[in-house]
Design the sequence.
């Protein structure tokens, strides 16, 4: 079977055109990924500020006083049974227990930007840890 030069030229042109279509899609994905990374880092940074004294408390206690450098938050182990709550709970529920008890403040809405930022911060400092839902 013999392939004509014009057929090869047409195949080559469609291959090149195909690349032209995929390059912008790739560039868009790169831009999206960069945006996602920036937004995540901004959320973690806001959470860091909240964790280190940014939550208004009646007694001036901050999360960092019980959890220096985010220690003993173990975000990777949620959901799990929490003795303080008497049930299997999500991380945000334990955050609110701490906000209401040691911090003597009002609970933070689970779907609020502040809660998302706090959970992002606590999850980020535990990045790389093996996921262990239910671990005590």
Sequence:
């Amino acid at each position: 079977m013999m392939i004509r030069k014009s057929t090869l030229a047409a195949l080559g042109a469609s291959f090149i055109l195909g690349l032209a279509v995929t390059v912008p899609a790739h560039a868009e994905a790169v831009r999206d990924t960069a945006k996602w990374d920036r937004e995540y880092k901004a959320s973690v940074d806001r959470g860091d500020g909240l964790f280190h004294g940014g939550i208004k408390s009646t007694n001036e206690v901050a999360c960092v006083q019980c959890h220096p450098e985010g220690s003993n938050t173990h975000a990777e182990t949620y959901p799990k049974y929490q003795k303080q709550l008497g049930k299997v709970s999500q991380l945000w529920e334990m955050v609110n227990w701490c906000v209401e008890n040691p911090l003597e403040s009002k609970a933070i809405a689970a779907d609020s930007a502040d809660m998302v930022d706090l959970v992002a911060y606590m999850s980020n400092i535990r990045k790389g840890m093996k996921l262990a839902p239910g671990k005590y």
